[in-house]
Amino acid sequence: QVQLVESGGGLVQAGGSLRLSCATSGSIFSVKAMGWYRQAPGKQRELVTTITSGGSINYADSVKGRFTISRDNAKNTVYLQMNSLKPEDTGVYYCNAQPWSRSLSDYWGQGTQVTVSS
User: Fold this and answer.
1) Residue 81: is its pLDDT beyond 80?
2) Pairwise CA distance, residues 63 & 48, whole Å
């Protein structure tokens, strides 16, 4: 069982920056990949970015060049640096961990609110 705890959300003006953190209860290498998803009001949850245990990174087109995912292996923590924020980035951001075993469901954090004002 992996527990994920997010922090770092808040209210920021358009063009500003925020950094989200996701601390895991176990080694980040105990899962196949970790990532960030977001859900805006009235919309489905969508992928923002992922990083695999081998270090491969994927970004949604809407955040490329503005968001950066990184990890601190010693702290078992994954970060999301968000720059040049736009109002459409507003939503609840969820940390995700994908288990190695396909028989297990993904792990999710509780979510952290990000609000970008225009």
Assistant:
1) yes
2) 7
* Residue 61 CB partners (closer than 8 Å, separation 6+): none
Tokens of 70: 């990184």
SS3 44: coil
CA geometry: angle 10, 107, 46, nearest 5 deg: 55
Q: Determine which of 9-18, 75-84, 86-95, 97-106 has the lowest per-residue pLDDT on average.
A: 97-106
Question: What are the start-end ranges of the E strands in the chain?
Answer: 4-7, 10-13, 18-24, 31-39, 46-52, 57-59, 67-72, 77-82, 91-99, 107-108, 112-117
Name residue 110's amino acid: Q
| Top-confidence residue, 27 or 6 | 6
Q: What angle do CA 66, 69, 72 make, to 5 degrees?
A: 145
User: β-strands 107-108, 10-13: how paired?
Assistant: unpaired
